[in-house]
Specification:
The protein is mostly helical. It folds into three domains: 45 residues, no CATH class; 86 residues, N-(1-d-carboxylethyl)-l-norvaline Dehydrogenase, domain 2; 93 residues, N-(1-d-carboxylethyl)-l-norvaline Dehydrogenase, domain 2, CATH 1.10.1040.10. A hairpin with a 2-residue loop joins strand 1 and strand 2.
Length: 292
């Protein structure tokens, strides 16, 4: 549509998911107010669409679409469709992963060495450290999507990221991000710096991700707990052995997680405030697995 300028009628827009509902013109105001009062649940994609959105298929499909778009225009003349494809290839349908990664970041803004943050994450069992992952995504892409989804730039860490991007530190793709890169590999420096005890840092890192996963479910970033767990494992590198953050909450203890967040909130501030999703889990007889 961007390349051709072709429009679609209301029925076609509804079919392809551009609009939620089609009504006669004289009912438009009432229908709009009804949707504002009672937002529709996100539509769960079909099996084929979900398969095409997996991280294994996205590069193949994106490459095909880039070649197809290149027949109509060049990136330097019309970069928008190429940029959309770049973001889709990196993140696909893993909105929950991006939501969690955005909410869970921030410790580096406290002066904690990135190597220490990544080391603790890997000790916990994560596939990749969050700082290295942000560099791999591209700090400009990371902050753009994070700002859109969770208002990331409003906190200290978000403002630091903006400063890094403005100074030309974009991550692996240009050799400078949180780390410096040579031939695509990070160059680590063993600088002795004060850092919080390892146990405290691991708890802070993991609990913020758990908190973000519950927020993603509550805010309907995803409506399926199992898909949220899978997305955050594959998209944000959460420890696979845990079964995902929502599964981990059930196995580690709901009361313990909520209680520790309250302690961390008193110690470090409101960024550790337990999401209201914890209150639902704490209700008598509630089993969070029912939301799957």
């Amino acid at each position: 549509m961007m390349l051709s300028g072709r429009g679609v009628n209301a029925g076609e827009a509804r079919r392809i998911g551009l609009v939620d509902e089609v009504v006669p013109e004289d009912q438009l105001d009432n229908a709009a107010r009804a949707i504002v009062r009672h937002p529709p649940f996100p539509i769960k994609p079909g099996l084929i669409r979900r398969f095409c959105s997996t991280r294994f298929m996205r590069p193949l499909i994106a490459d095909y679409l880039r070649r197809k778009i290149a027949k109509e225009t060049e990136r330097r003349h019309y970069p928008v469709p190429f940029a959309i494809l770049d973001l889709w290839e990196r993140f696909g349908g893993d909105q929950a992963a991006m939501f969690a990664l955005s909410h869970g970041s921030g410790h580096n803004g406290e002066g904690i060495p990135p190597t220490e943050i990544d080391r603790i994450a890997m000790v916990f069992g994560m596939i990749i450290g969050p700082i290295l992952l942000a560099d791999a995504i591209g700090l400009d892409n990371f902050i753009s999507v994070a700002r859109t989804m969770v208002g990331h730039s409003s906190n200290v860490a978000g403002k630091r990221l903006e400063g890094m991007v403005n100074s030309g530190r974009l991550g692996i793709k240009n050799g400078r991000g949180f780390y410096r890169y040579e031939n695509g590999k990070p160059v680590y420096h063993d600088k002795k710096r004060d850092a919080p005890p390892a146990a405290d840092l691991e708890e802070r890192l993991v609990l913020r991700l758990l908190n973000a996963a519950l927020a993603a479910l509550r805010e309907r970033v995803t409506v399926d707990a199992e898909l949220a767990d899978a997305g955050i494992i594959f998209g944000a590198g959460f420890a696979p052995v845990s079964g995902g953050p929502l599964h981990y909450i059930g196995s580690a203890g709901i009361n313990l997680g909520h209680g520790r967040l309250k302690v961390l909130e008193e110690r470090y501030g409101s960024r550790f405030a337990p999401d209201t999703g914890w209150l639902k889990l704490l209700m008598p007889g509630c089993n969070h697995n029912k939301s799957k």
